[in-house]
């Protein structure tokens, strides 16, 4: 199953609404990078509001996607990480140190604009 | 035979109570008993003795007078030792009394008569224990039940107080922490912090540790974890209320709090929070100007 990637002006919006398994995650990584390349987007918001479970592999993929997109010139903001997910990640020792985060999509877009202005 | 024994004890209750009170009074020398009037102590002793006899007489029923008596003592805050002490003395008094009266007792007409000879002492002891032990158990369970109740209530109160979250402004929330933080509480703090951030849509959370007496590596670790989790869900965390001695401990322990901003007081932290959410405090000077103008115009009119 593929995760839809929506384009809005210069931004790409992704709302993950399925259980992320390893295959979907890798597929998503490829799709997103391809889309950044084809659309020339400068910002990406990945919304994780409906994601209840994140294991260490998914967390690594998400971290990688952020770094890779950065390399291609697109800033990524993760939004809507659930408290339970945050606690799990911290317990697993995954701090996603350099990844910008925001509470919801709206604030994610504001944050993205701020980051791009700098 | 047991029935005869019981009847003897019940028939002579007055004498046993007299012996019992005499003995109990000797034991009641502690500070608690000195704070009571002699009359109150006397009355309670008498009530206790009556309750015991009624308990023995009626055996096991749902609500014995002893239960009611124990409840009353619990409410009045009497120590458990009063009851256990009383029961022990009672056991001794009864045994002493029966041994004393043994020669006068006539068991020959009893239903299940058997010859005891000189070995009657263990038998008497056993019988008396059979009456007294259930009463002791009942009293102790009554007391411990009330304690457990209190402990569970206090634990609930503590839980309610342990992690409050105050949304002071749109997007700014404060969590004041007071008292020692252990692992269990830290978990609750983290949970309520994250849920609160989502619920109040807080962009900035201030964790106030003014009321935390000691910050060791464990507490610092928990606070750092909470702050990281807050960052992951897309909010920012400011640690405020760091007292000089806490700053010293943190540095001496080699704890790195560099990843998120820290401030010495809630006031400063709040200002930083306002800056982070693009707001500032503006003092309203218009009113003062208005008053000055008014006074000036008054002066002018007087001059004219």
Gap between N and C termini of chain A, in Å? 37 Å
Sheet with the most strands of chain A? 5 strands, mixed
Strand proportion of chain B, as a percent range, falls in 5-15%
Q: What name is given to the CATH topology of the largest domain in chain B?
A: Globin-like
Question: What would CATH call the class of the largest domain in chain B?
Answer: Mainly Alpha
Q: How many individual helices of chain A?
A: 4
Q: Indicate the low-confidence ranges of chain B by residue numbers.
A: none
If strands are numbered along the chain, what order do they take across the biggest sheet of chain B? Answer: 1-2-3-4-5
Protein name (chain A): RsbT antagonist protein RsbS
Organism (chain A): Salimicrobium album
Domain STAS (chain A): 1-112
Pfam family, one (chain A): STAS
Summarize the structure.
The complex is a heterodimer of chains A (118) and B (304). By secondary structure, chain A is of the alpha/beta class. Chain A is 47% helix and 17% strand.
What does this structure look like?
The complex is a heterodimer of chains A (118) and B (304). Helix content of chain A is 47%, strand content 17%. Chain A is of the alpha/beta class and 118 residues long. Chain A has one domain (6-117): 2-Layer Sandwich (Transcription Regulator spoIIAA), CATH 3.30.750.24. In chain A, strands 1-2-3-4-5 form a 5-stranded mixed beta sheet, sandwiched between helices. Chain A starts with 5 loop residues before the first strand and ends with a helix. The model of chain A has no long low-confidence stretch (mean pLDDT 89). Chain B is an alpha/beta fold and 304 residues long. In chain B, helix 2 crosses helix 4, helix 2 crosses helix 6 and helix 6 (80-101) packs antiparallel against helix 7. The longest helix of chain B has 43 residues, at 120-162. Chain A binds chain B through residues 78-83, 85-87, 89-90, 95-96, 101-104, 107-108, and chain B through 190-191, 194-195, 197-198, 201-203, 225, 228-235. Chain B: This is RsbT co-antagonist protein RsbR. Chain B: It comes from Salimicrobium album. Chain B: InterPro entries: Bact_StressResp_Reg (IPR051932), Globin/Proto (IPR012292), RsbRA_N (IPR014792), STAS_dom (IPR002645), STAS_dom_sf (IPR036513).
């Amino acid at each position: 199953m593929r995760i839809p990637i929506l384009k809005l002006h210069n931004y790409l919006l992704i709302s993950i609404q399925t259980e992320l398994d390893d295959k979907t995650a890798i597929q998503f990584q490829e799709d997103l990078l391809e889309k950044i390349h084809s659309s020339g987007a400068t910002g990406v918001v990945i919304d994780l509001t409906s994601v209840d479970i994140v294991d260490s592999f998914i967390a690594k993929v998400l971290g990688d996607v952020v770094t890779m997109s950065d390399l291609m010139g697109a800033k990524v903001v993760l939004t809507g990480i659930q408290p339970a997910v945050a606690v799990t990640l911290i317990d697993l020792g995954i701090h996603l140190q350099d990844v910008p985060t925001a509470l919801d999509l709206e604030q994610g877009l504001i944050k993205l604009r701020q980051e791009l202005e700098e | 035979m047991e029935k005869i024994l019981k009847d003897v004890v019940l028939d002579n209750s007055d004498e046993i109570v007299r012996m019992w009170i005499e003995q109990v009074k000797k034991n009641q020398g502690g500070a608690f008993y000195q704070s009571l009037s002699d009359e109150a102590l006397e009355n309670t002793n008498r009530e206790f003795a009556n309750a015991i006899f009624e308990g023995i007489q009626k055996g096991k029923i749902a609500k014995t007078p002893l239960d009611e008596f124990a409840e009353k003592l619990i409410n009045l805050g009497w120590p458990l030792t009063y009851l256990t002490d009383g029961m022990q003395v009672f056991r001794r008094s009864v045994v002493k009394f029966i041994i004393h009266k043994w020669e006068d007792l006539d068991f020959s007409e009893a239903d299940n008569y058997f010859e005891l000879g000189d070995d009657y002492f263990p038998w008497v002891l056993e019988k008396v224990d059979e009456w007294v032990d259930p009463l002791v158990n009942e009293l102790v369970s009554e007391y411990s039940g009330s304690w457990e109740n209190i402990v569970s209530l206090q634990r609930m109160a503590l839980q309610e107080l342990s992690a409050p979250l105050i949304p002071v402004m749109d997007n700014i929330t404060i969590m004041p922490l007071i008292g020692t933080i252990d692992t269990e509480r830290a978990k609750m703090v983290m949970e309520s912090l994250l849920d609160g951030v989502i619920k109040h849509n807080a962009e900035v959370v201030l964790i106030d540790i003014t009321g935390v007496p000691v910050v060791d590596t464990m507490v610092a670790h928990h606070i750092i974890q909470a702050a990281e989790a807050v960052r992951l869900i897309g909010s920012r965390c400011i640690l405020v209320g760091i007292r000089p001695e806490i700053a010293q401990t943190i540095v001496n322990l080699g704890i790195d709090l560099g990843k998120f901003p820290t401030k010495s007081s809630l006031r400063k932290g709040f200002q930083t929070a306002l800056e982070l959410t693009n707001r500032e405090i503006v003092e309203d000077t218009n009113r003062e100007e208005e008053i000055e103008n008014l006074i000036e115009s008054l002066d002018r009119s007087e001059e004219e």
